[in-house]
Queue: 3 jobs
Job 1
Amino acid sequence: MRGMKSVAVAGVLACMIGAARSDELVGTIDAINTTRNTISVGDKIFAVSPQNTVGPRIGDLRRGDRVKIFYASGRVRAKTRFNAIRIEKQGG
């Protein structure tokens, strides 16, 4: 019985780990909302910390900047905001 519980717990943990992953996107910033600390790139909205220590801060970004965003993704619902893990400006 104890072994079956261990297998069940391991299965649940594997599902939880599989649900959270990271992806990357390269695109142009379409909109910036400094009140909500979000940027829009294509059809995705990214939450960006104003104290970002990995890459530019939201105040350093401009509409039209080309960026590469590494973000946490998982189960996606309508109007999901993705958490930007790291942002890199592309080009000059």
Job 2
Amino acid sequence: MFTGRWRNSNGSEMVLTQAGEAISGVYITWIGDDQTVGREHALTGRAAGDLIGFVVAWPAAKSLTSWAGRLVRGGDGAAAIHS
């Protein structure tokens, strides 16, 4: 359900793989600390139906960010994660 490449309004991307409830992948940000921009960062999380929660570690910035969201399909069938 969540497997694929996702892009947010800032141009940052994540590539997700879902195996059962487990989520893994990478996040590539285009905003923030110069040591993190444009680099792949490990992502891990869980999914339950159309709900998702995940965490990205930013070792160079000594930081973690977490998100929670819901998969929503628009009238045109396009999928989005509302977090």
Job 3
Amino acid sequence: MSDNPERSILGRLAEIEFEKECLKRKLLIASPIIDNQSGWDYIVDFGDGLKKVQVKKIGRNINNRNQEYKTIQLNGRASYRKKDGSWEHRKWQYKEGSYDFLAGVDLELNEIFLFPYDVLKGLNRTQTPDRK
């Protein structure tokens, strides 16, 4: 679990939205009892075999022209300020085979984007469509 409670809560909300969508589509899903596996949050039966799915909340960013865009952080470095004012930095990278699909959940627009691992391989982040 993250040291940042808000990030943990939003991440869990994204997972709940993914679970709801799977239930609506009558997809069988399974999740681990404890969160210690690497690279996936759910096993989903899409009808053509079991697939590992990593769920990520879509975040907001501002570019150098002060325009907002939405992204999913895939690999790289996450930085955030802790309660004591210090900065926490973590690096990570998903390895090949760690997930089959990544589900990006936009909590504001209630949309889910499903990306195969091969499309995202080697990227640190991806931008999602603008649906304003």
